[in-house]
Write a structure and sequence with these properties.
Layout lengths: L1 E4 L5 H11 L19 H9 L3 E7 L2 E10 L4 E8 L8 H10 L6 E6 L3 H9 L3 E2 L2 H11 L4 H5 L1 E5 L1 H10 L1
Parallel strand pairs: 4-5
Antiparallel strand pairs: 1-2, 2-3, 3-4, 5-7, 6-7
Amino acid sequence: MMIRRSVGEDFAQILAIINDGAQAYRGVIPADRWHDPYMPAFELEKQIREGVEFSVAEDEGRMLGVMGIQDRGDVALVRHAYVSTQWQRGGVGTKLLKHVQGLTSKPILIGTWADASWAIGFYERNGFEVLTKPDIERLLRRYWSIPDRQVETSVVLADQRWLKLADAHA
């Protein structure tokens, strides 16, 4: 498996993997937050314009997964981390996460749905910790542009760099 930075020609495959991988959220996240498709093309275009840089995992010409990272000043956000349903639970997500972690020296935050226990567990197994409710709300409002309803139904996880800084300021 190879991980590389995405190029413009990857757009359609990135969009397909996001929408395929997001099927895991159907019936789990609040119904009022589900869209079909989960991410329309115009939203992915907007995310890229707003600075989300994608890395892709591929093997023998097949794209297996995608993960974005977005610089938000004093932190970096992992955004839109999805593995094709056909390739989930095979280490693709872990390799992508390690790759994007290596792209920045900044503390990393990850937002996900509070009811997505598998996603939270994945990040926890990779050294991230779920933050407290007051921190979650504050950080979601500071670094993400999401509706209030999504803030209410999401969690934020932080890497060890962020946790060390937070402890130093406590």
